Batch of 2 targets.
Target 1
Amino acid sequence: MIRLVVVDDHPVVRDGLRGMVATQSDFELVGEAASGMEALAVVAAVSPDVVLTDLRMPDPSGGALIRLIRERVPAAAVLVLTTHDTDSDVLSAVEAGAVGYLLKDAPREELFRAVRAAVRGDTVLSPAVAAVLVGRVRPRQGSRELSTRELEVLRLIARGNTNREAAAELYISEATVKTHLLHVYAKLGVSDRASAVATAYRGGILD
């Protein structure tokens, strides 16, 4: 059973998400919150598997809220569901530790897949959000820290591909993709896929 907390300051949105969650036999809604402070209290109390949160709410919000959730309940995966897809919103959320970023016009099946992927530790980005990152993913000339293959894997991860999809794209095994990702994490000083993309962009490895 995947235990979820829904965080949104609009009651109608929470009502809609509550109804959607109830249609899935492997989902359980264990808490709701209408503000950042309430979210932190609820998440700490119930320790969910996934926190499904809007980005802009009463304080704390955005990257600050995501970072605090990750610090206080590291096992909880944070999945953003919002209407905002600007570069700054996407990058701040990903850098703070969000494992996924979807827009509120996403089909419900896409949302369900994203929740399940978040539990597995996979990064899920809506097409519009992926475009924000992919548009910047271009190796800088002279960047030598990551190998060519590591950059290729990182580029696919930035597009939202799973390990299996990246393996198929590059004609290598899924285990080899995982190995390349571990090397990327070690070189960039991060521990997850989303942080690797954000750190590589900010460090000039991806442009």
Target 2
Amino acid sequence: MPVLVGAVFGLGLFLLIRALVPGKRSALSQVARIDALRARGAAALAADQPPSDEEARRLGSLRARVGLRAAEFYRQQGWEQRSLRADLAVLDRSWETFLATKVLLAAAGLVFGPFVFVVVWTLGFGSGPVIPVWLALVFAAVFFMLPDLEVRRDAAGKRRDLRRVVGAYLDLVAMNLAGGRGLPEALMAAAEVSDGWAIRRVRNALADARITGMSQWQALGNLGEELGIDELKDLSASLALVADDGAKVRESLGSRAETMRHREMAEIEGSAGEKSQSMLVAQLLLCAGFLVFLIFPAAMRVFQQG
């Protein structure tokens, strides 16, 4: 117990020092702070409009204030959380809303821990005064980390779908190039064959590149950086090298699409193998339980007679 108390005290002292001494801000965090201040002003203007539902407005305003405060604290500390931001970008969720959810769930955990202690205490399993504090801290930490686990799980699934779509998209671009179109026209034409969320993200990135004067392969690279998709970043780099040679572009796109299909097939086979192993373990446990069910009565009779 003294070692555990000392560890918790040291962790609290470390977090206090980190909170009082802000980290070095990067240029990205400074630009994000300016954007957040601008968004805060827009949110304040929108809040002046008469709401349709008073209760929903109160909850939404509280969540928005908590999210803005938490995002400001993260910026002051220099915590960019790039991988987590990429996961949220894949899911098309707001960073401030995500932080507000984490903080509110942690607050709920602080209340839920003592509530569990009250239930346990009424059953007669505990009476120490320190137990409610530990339960509150443990539940607050667990509830604070739950949104991260959910976001990473959902983002991993959507990234798999996006990679599958990118592989088909590369085949369509190669076919458009074989039909005589240039690379910019082939990229945009291949992005207009569907209205799914993944191909729509690609199409929006290409349309924004036309407006801003950016090359389309650079826009694909920026999209891959934003969403954490390495295939898009590699595609951007390869297109920048061979953009002037149509034959090399077709060969590069075809080989890249084939590589992505082989990788996807390998992942599917690996997932199927894991599921087969889990089913085998479940069958073995079921057989062991059935054998215990058959042997136990006979063994009890032998022991009683002995």
